[in-house]
């Protein structure tokens, strides 16, 4: 090996080493940057930020007597579907619904009496996700796109939904709808504060988690002029829902299935 | 080497054709359109959730963390390094300042050929679809 070649090899080796350390230093610098800024979220300050209150158990009581006062009223449905950008496909096969109405006999299939009270017979009952205590949809979701929060809300993460529709098959209440088409062109009045959904995603009522986080009531409860819908905490024995359930006879949809639905109807 | 003339000529032609977009750009005098970001004007310029340097490189990571915090953990407030609180929201906080998607987000995304699907669901500010 002559002198020149030896020198050349040494130089290239050194240069390569130098370049490599430079790159490494760069990578470490980036690591540091990410770490610093993610500290805010995972670090100590976290405890001061409001999260999900696991001591609560949100539920709803619907007084059908009050609900049926105004015939053909759709205030709760309109309010909900407007703020959540629910599309209207004008085709029952594609229909997306968060709240809808079903005749009493359809909503409560287990109420087998031949002769119902006249004030309930064939009357439209508002129904939506029951936020079950034992939600079958959650058990079947392969991506954890739907899960039960600590405060009882059966949440949906539309980022994660892959559109397999297992949850729709599992839900005994038909509370879930699937976007067969791009919903954007079918939303009359887009509310920019709430996302729309995309084709291939399942959606349903989320108990207005975004409003509860701000200390507001769900939109349907607020929209009801008869105050037929009452939202509250089941874990608090003095809460409005517990008081109502204590004083009145209530029924739930298909309780025999063991899903433990948390929407109570006063009849 | 046999037929070296032909091979070398062929290689030259191949390399020439392969790199033709570069030559075309050089000849026409204009390089590919560089991202040209329009930042919020001085009046509505507020403090960002992090430094520009950080945001440039990691805004996508930050948005992913925000997404999981809000949707899955129910935490909606972000504390920046300067101690300021922000609502973790793409459409309220981010586009509250950077209100023009075409002049801000799209500039780099188009340049780099990335197509984030945020806007498939989240509503772009001042979009034609919002009829208000």
Structural overview:
The complex is a heterodimer of chains A (267) and B (132). Chain A is 31% helix and 14% strand. With 267 residues, chain A is of the alpha+beta class. Chain A has 2 domains: 3-48; 58-266, Alpha-Beta Plaits (2-Layer Sandwich), CATH 3.30.70.20. In chain A, a hairpin with a 5-residue loop joins β4 (146-148) and β5 (154-156). The N and C termini of chain A lie far apart (100 Å). Chain B is mainly α and 132 residues long. Chain B has 6 helices and 2 strands, in the order αααββααα. The longest helix of chain B is centred in the middle third of the chain and has 22 residues, at 52-73. The N and C termini of chain B lie far apart (74 Å). The mean pLDDT of chain B is 86. Classes of the chains: A alpha+beta (267), B mainly alpha (132). Chain A binds chain B through residues 30, 33-34, 36-38, 40-41, 45-46, 49-52, 85, 147, 149, 155, 157-159, 184, 187-198, 209, 213, and chain B through 50, 53-54, 57-58, 61-62, 65, 67, 69, 71-81, 91-92, 117, 120-123, 125, 127, 129-132.
List the helices and strands and how they pair.
The complex is a heterodimer of chains A (267) and B (132).
Chain A: H1 3-42, E1 58-63, H2 64-67, H3 75-83, E2 99-103, H4 104-107, E3 124-128, H5 136-140, E4 146-148, E5 154-156, H6 166-170, E6 177-178, E7 202-203, H7 209-212, H8 219-223, E8 229-233, H9 240-247, E9 250-251, E10 263-266
Parallel strand pairs in A: 1-10
Antiparallel strand pairs in A: 1-8, 2-3, 4-5, 6-7, 9-10
Chain B: H1 4-18, H2 20-28, H3 52-73, E1 77-79, E2 85-87, H4 90-97, H5 105-112, H6 118-121
Antiparallel strand pairs in B: 1-2
What is the H/E order of chain A? HEHHEHEHEEHEEHHEHEE
| Residue-averaged pLDDT of chain A | 88
Silhouette of chain B:
elongated
Oligomer: heterodimer
- Report the sheet with the most strands of chain B, covering strand number, pairing sense and barrel closure: 2 strands, antiparallel
Strand content of chain B: under 5%
Radius of gyration of chain B, Cα only, in angstroms?
A: 23 Å
The low-confidence parts of chain A are 34-48
């Amino acid at each position: 090996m002559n002198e020149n070649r030896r020198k050349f090899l040494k130089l290239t080796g050194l240069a390569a080493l130098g370049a490599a350390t430079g790159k490494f230093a760069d990578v470490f610098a980036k690591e540091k940057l990410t770490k610093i800024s993610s500290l805010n979220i995972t670090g100590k300050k976290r405890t001061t930020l409001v999260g999900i209150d696991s001591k609560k158990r949100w539920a709803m009581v619907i007084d059908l007597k009050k609900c049926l006062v105004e015939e053909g009223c759709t205030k709760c449905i309109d309010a909900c579907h407007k703020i959540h950008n629910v599309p209207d496909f004008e085709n029952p096969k594609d229909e997306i619904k968060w709240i809808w109405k079903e005749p009493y006999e359809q909503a409560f299939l287990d109420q087998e009496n031949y002769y119902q009270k006249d004030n309930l017979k064939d009357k439209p009952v508002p129904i939506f996700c029951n936020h079950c205590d034992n939600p079958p949809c959650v058990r079947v979701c392969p991506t954890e796109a739907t899960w039960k929060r600590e405060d009882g809300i059966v949440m949906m993460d539309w980022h994660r939904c892959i559109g397999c529709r297992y949850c729709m098959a599992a839900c005994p209440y038909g509370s879930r709808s699937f976007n067969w088409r791009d919903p954007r062109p079918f939303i009359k009045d887009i509310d920019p504060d709430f996302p729309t959904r995309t084709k291939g995603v399942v959606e349903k009522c989320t108990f207005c988690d975004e409003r509860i986080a701000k200390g507001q009531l769900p939109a349907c409860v607020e929209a009801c002029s008869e105050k037929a819908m009452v939202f509250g905490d089941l874990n608090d024995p003095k809460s409005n829902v517990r008081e109502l359930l204590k004083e009145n006879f209530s029924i739930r949809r298909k309780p025999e299935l063991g899903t433990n639905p948390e929407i109570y109807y006063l009849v | 080497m046999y037929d070296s003339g032909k091979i070398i000529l062929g290689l030259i032609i191949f390399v020439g054709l392969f790199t033709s977009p570069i030559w075309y750009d050089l000849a026409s005098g204009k390089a590919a359109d560089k991202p040209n970001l329009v930042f919020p004007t001085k009046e509505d310029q507020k403090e960002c959730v992090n430094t520009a340097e950080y945001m440039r490189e990691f805004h996508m990571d930050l948005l992913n963390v925000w997404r999981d915090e809000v949707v899955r953990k129910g935490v909606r407030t972000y504390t920046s390094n300067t101690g300021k609180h922000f609502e973790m929201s793409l459409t309220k906080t981010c586009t509250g300042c950077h209100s023009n998607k075409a002049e801000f987000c799209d500039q780099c995304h188009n340049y780099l050929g990335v197509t984030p699907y945020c806007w498939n669901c989240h509503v772009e500010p001042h979009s034609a679809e919002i009829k208000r």
